[in-house]
Amino acid sequence: MRVFVTGATGFVGTAVVEELLAAGHEVLGLARSERSAAALIAAGAKVHRGDLGDLESLRTGAAATDATIHLGFNHDFSRFVESCHEDAQVIETLGAALTGRDGLLLVTSGTAILPGGTVSTEATPAPMSEGAHPRTASEHAAARVAERGAKVAVVRLSPSVHGAGDQGFVSFVATFARQHGRSAYVGKGLNRWCAVHRRDAARLFRLALEKGEGGACYHAVSESAVPFRDIAAALGRSLDLPVEGLPPDAAGAHFDWFTALASSDTPASSDWTRTTLGWHPTEPGLLADIESGLYSGT
């Protein structure tokens, strides 16, 4: 299968491209820079020049291939709401290029958009109420595209997609710990994160591409409920820092803009995904990756 991949040189994207190529698929990767183009060529993929802001480049990339995996996203958290709206436009454009065709569009979302305090499943809908997480815009755009005749499925990533080279949420927590000389959690630290290794996530994207159905939602979750206190404790051991629980009203001084995420309780299940796609995560868990020192020099 010939597959167009946005975000093809990102942390998850590089693993997805590697997984697709190893399985015999051809990859056309979106590249904005010479560096990204060179990385794709070195990996064995073909290059499609453009970026997420160039909607015509997205349309032609999707139209030239059998299926599309949309992984790209602008992770500038200072303009996160705008980035979510832009992502919806990207999905609308990719979907229009695939409408009426059999090719699957895989849209990336996250389990963190779902209501907290309970274990979410693949059947849990993205909230539509006022005040919902801004990233729900991606799933709502996918639903609109599907209504117009495109074959669309969603892959929700865990808040922590970990592994060598991770510059995401756990790396932020490690940075705050180094800055303040302590590894912290909020309250009793019993709020739960789910997690997945990037290579397990890449395998899931490949299986969803090969076996997935339009209208489905898949969860890239290998660990459904890791207490944040355990994450902080593992980071404390790795960084040789004391571990401390913070009262909620003091958490902002430590976690700054990340406070809501550090306090979030969003466990999620992937039982249906595993049964449906035959996905079996095999890579190290989040705490094992932290203990191995992956975040000690972040």
Per CATH, what is the topology of the largest domain? Rossmann fold
The count of domains is 2
Rounded to the nearest angstrom, the distance between the terminal CA atoms is: 37 Å
CA-based shape: globular
- Number of E-state strands: 12
CATH superfamily of the largest domain: NAD(P)-binding Rossmann-like Domain
Largest sheet, in brief, is: 7 strands, parallel
pLDDT < 50 stretches: none
Report the β-strand fraction as a percent range. 15-25%
The SSE string, one letter per element, is EHEHEHEHEHEEHEEHEEHEHHHH
> Structural class per helix/strand content?
alpha/beta
Mean pLDDT: 96
Helix percentage: 40-55%
* Rg: 19 Å
CATH architecture annotation name of the largest domain: 3-Layer(aba) Sandwich
Strand order of the largest sheet: 3-2-1-4-5-6-10
**CATH C-level name of the largest domain:** Alpha Beta
What is the count of DSSP helices, taking H or I runs of 4+ residues? 12
